[in-house]
């Protein structure tokens, strides 16, 4: 059943991606990223995610998958709680600091203990998010309590 759902999801994602080219470009945005960039990026990432899930569903042993899901239920719950805390702290603590802390805590919950993955990776991802959203898309993150100190 999952194979059918993933296949339908991939087809819908492809159709939405094709349809996203009908979003009109603004004349003032000539030479810059327009309003169709974000939906297309999300659809590309969605297509990749569903493709990976479909591949895993087809080629993975069913019994080992059930054991893996059972083993990670506690981590899944912790990740859901972390997401809720992140959504609450995003405005209060500030966007950039909250993103860094979220990625750091997510890595810790999923038992990633290597220094590079635990500290350097969240810093690089946070800088990447800042660069894409603040510089390219001109999205202002909430400054929060940390941003108000400077």
The whole-angstrom Rg is 19 Å
Helix and strand run:
HHHHHHH
Q: Helix share of residues?
A: over 70%
Distance between the termini: 54 Å
Overall geometric form: flat
Give an account of the 3D structure:
With 150 residues, the protein is mostly helical. It has two domains: 1-60; 68-150, no CATH class. It is 75% helix and 0% strand. It has seven helices and no strands. The chain has helices spanning 2-19, 37-59, 62-71, 73-93, 95-109, 115-136, 144-147. The model has no long low-confidence stretch (mean pLDDT 81).
What features would you highlight for this structure?
7 helices
Describe the structure in brief.
By secondary structure, the protein is mainly alpha-helical. It is built from 7 helices and no strands.
